[in-house]
């Protein structure tokens, strides 16, 4: 059977399913209705499905010792009430559409469909991994994707190596001795070590890091005191650190922790550091990505397979890519009118024709990998 024709024949079904997912948008770890919609659809296809990580779903097409994994995130955002302002309804529709099409084609190899909760919050990828999502059967390759505003429908962006950054946040509390602003000599003003930290880390990142090794350290919040004549007892600095390099990520973490303590000691204060390690960078496997590009050039036309520009946005697909050779690509959603508003915008929208190209791209690569599982 012709893959494009099968997708076209089933496209109305998938578009209707996407609308249903959109109308039942739910926040992270609240995706119970979404979970039921997915499980009901997979059950209709006679694809066994189980719950995982509270509200996630894993469906396995065919038996096998190893398989190809396809991941789609499930959760929505608190935008316009609750809505899929990041396009996760389209991600799920592409994965479910791929399942439907492979079933229709009589595909006999093993494919695992991973519907992951909570990408927008603390992340559901790691809990699913810890519960064994990459095992029984063993996931040999993983495919991920994200709808991309401004990229025309029918085109994708993909590249080897890092495409999205790591993300770590920090909250640092400097504790001093508060008192009267007219008597600073008997106080320990925590504002000074807070300022010292910001200046020192900003300078270190400029003079100790290769300028070609992109990274961002942003101090985004500084709170201390509430009035003119009182030296506060505490100052709190918050921020985020992002990079595409795990070694640099580790160095930034160590530098911030060490410098906070040095700055505090310098001014006779104490530093309490809460450094929240979150997602690693999304790194696509070089060899697998080269194959993906080659297949996509034939499927979509080389003029429609574009290199990507890295973004400091983050995505917990990174945890899958750390453990399994993976490829993560961007799916075009713009028709010039729809699909141009940024992710997370209250005006975010998508040209539904993107669903066809998402399924066509993913299914074509699954067929290419079939002999390896």
TrEMBL record:
Cofactor binding remark: The Mn(2+) ion enhances activity.
GO molecular function annotations of the record: hydrolase activity; metal ion binding
Keyword Hydrolase on entry: yes
Gene3D superfamilies xref list: 3.30.70.360, Zn peptidases
Domain of life: Bacteria
Residue ranges of domain Peptidase M20 dimerisation in the record: 170-264
Cofactor(s) annotated in UniProt: Mn(2+)
Alphabetically ordered keywords of this record: Hydrolase, Manganese, Metal-binding
CDD domains to which the protein is assigned, alphabetical: M20_Acy1
Binding residues for Mn(2+): 86, 88, 120, 146, 344
Protein name: Hippurate hydrolase
Organism whose genome encodes this protein: Fonticella tunisiensis
Organism ancestry: Bacteria, Bacillati, Bacillota, Clostridia, Eubacteriales
């Amino acid at each position: 059977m012709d893959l494009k024709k099968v997708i076209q024949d089933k496209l109305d079904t998938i578009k209707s399913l996407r609308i249903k997912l959109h109308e039942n948008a739910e926040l992270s770890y609240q995706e119970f209705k979404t979970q039921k919609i997915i499980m009901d659809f997979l059950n209709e296809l006679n694809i066994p499905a189980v719950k995982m990580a509270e509200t996630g779903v894993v469906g396995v097409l065919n038996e096998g010792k190893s398989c190809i994994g396809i991941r789609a995130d499930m959760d929505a955002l608190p935008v316009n009430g609750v809505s899929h302002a990041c396009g996760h309804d389209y991600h799920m529709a592409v994965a479910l559409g791929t399942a439907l099409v492979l079933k229709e084609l009589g595909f006999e190899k093993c494919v695992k469909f991973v519907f992951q909760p909570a990408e927008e919050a603390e992340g559901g990828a790691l809990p699913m991994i810890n519960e064994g999502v990459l095992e029984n059967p063993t996931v040999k390759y993983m495919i991920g994707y994200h709808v991309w505003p401004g990229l025309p429908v029918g085109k994708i962006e993909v590249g080897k190596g890092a495409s999205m950054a790591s993300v770590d946040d920090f909250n640092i509390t400097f504790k001093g001795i508060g008192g009267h602003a007219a008597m600073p000599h008997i106080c320990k003003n925590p504002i000074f070590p807070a300022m010292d930290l910001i200046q020192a880390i900003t300078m270190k990142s400029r003079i100790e890091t290769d300028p070609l090794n992109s990274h961002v350290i942003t101090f985004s919040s500084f709170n201390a005191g509430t009035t003119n004549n009182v030296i506060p007892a505490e100052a709190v600095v918050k921020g985020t650190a992002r990079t595409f390099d795990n070694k640099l990520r580790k160095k930034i973490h160590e530098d911030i922790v060490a410098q906070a303590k040095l700055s505090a000691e310098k001014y006779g204060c104490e530093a309490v550091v809460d450094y929240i390690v979150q997602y690693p960078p999304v790194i696509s496997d070089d060899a697998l990505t080269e194959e993906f590009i080659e297949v996509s050039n034939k499927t979509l036309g080389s003029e429609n397979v574009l290199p990507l520009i890295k973004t400091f946005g983050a995505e917990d697909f990174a945890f899958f890519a750390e453990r399994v050779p993976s490829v993560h690509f961007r799916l075009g959603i713009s028709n010039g009118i729809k699909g141009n508003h940024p992710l997370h915008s209250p005006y975010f929208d998508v040209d539904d024709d993107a669903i066809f190209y998402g399924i066509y791209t993913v299914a074509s690569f699954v067929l290419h990998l079939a002999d390896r599982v």
